[in-house]
């Protein structure tokens, strides 16, 4: 789940993104200060809005926020109080991590995309379709995994590019809005000494 909050521009509401709506038509039901957003075609919950959040607890961050176990428990109490039989689950794993390209083959239906096998943890490799001109086997870079929110607000979900499954995105300095990022295509290139699976730290992983 993705938790996002911006009191200045959105208001005192915590938005919880639970699933990709895949372009489906949405409806919402509200009980008290809780609203459930769901797909009309199958009833799947894709988001929750928690209004008047400051009555429950304070958040000082903006954009994607990481909640404590206690804060998530408070939200679940609020859902129960309003009559929703659902539970919000906190995902403790980092969503921006160091990854390494282990394999790369040309996309069969594209002249610029590649299908990459990217190691994102000691025991986890994911497939990512990418068009970065500097992608190559052995390169270490920053990967946005499903559940990540990019600085511009777009969300990362599993998907497909021209028929090939993709489970994340390898990021450019510009996409991560890093200071003095070069205004050209290409994913961020990290030192070979970086450890796969390490959470992204701009101060450590970028020197402008």
UniProtKB/TrEMBL annotation:
Among SUPFAM superfamilies, the record links this protein to: Nucleic acid-binding proteins
Q: Which domain of life is it from?
A: Bacteria
Key words of the record: RNA-binding, tRNA-binding
Q: Where are the transmembrane segments?
A: none
What is a single molecular function from GO for this protein?
tRNA binding
Question: Domain TRNA-binding, which positions?
Answer: 90-201
Q: What is this protein called?
A: tRNA-binding domain-containing protein
């Amino acid at each position: 789940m993705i938790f996002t909050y911006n009191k200045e521009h959105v208001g005192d509401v915590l938005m919880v993104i639970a699933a990709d709506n895949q372009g489906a038509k949405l409806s919402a039901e509200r009980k008290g200060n809780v609203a459930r957003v769901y797909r009309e075609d199958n009833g799947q919950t894709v988001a929750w809005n928690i209004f008047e959040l400051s009555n429950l607890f304070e958040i000082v961050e903006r954009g994607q926020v990481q909640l404590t176990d206690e804060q998530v428990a408070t939200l679940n109490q609020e859902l129960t109080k309003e009559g929703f039989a659902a539970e919000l689950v906190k995902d403790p794993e980092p969503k921006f991590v160091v990854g390494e390209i282990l394999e790369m083959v040309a996309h069969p239906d594209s002249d610029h995309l590649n299908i990459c096998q990217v190691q994102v943890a000691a025991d986890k490799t994911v497939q990512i379709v990418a068009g970065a001109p500097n992608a190559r086997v052995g390169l270490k870079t920053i990967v946005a995994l499903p559940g990540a929110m990019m600085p511009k607000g777009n969300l990362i979900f599993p998907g497909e590019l021209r028929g090939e499954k993709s489970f994340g995105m390898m990021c450019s300095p510009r996409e991560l809005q890093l200071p003095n990022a070069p205004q050209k295509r290409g994913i961020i290139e990290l030192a070979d000494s970086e450890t796969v699976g390490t959470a992204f730290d701009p101060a450590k992983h970028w020197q402008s």
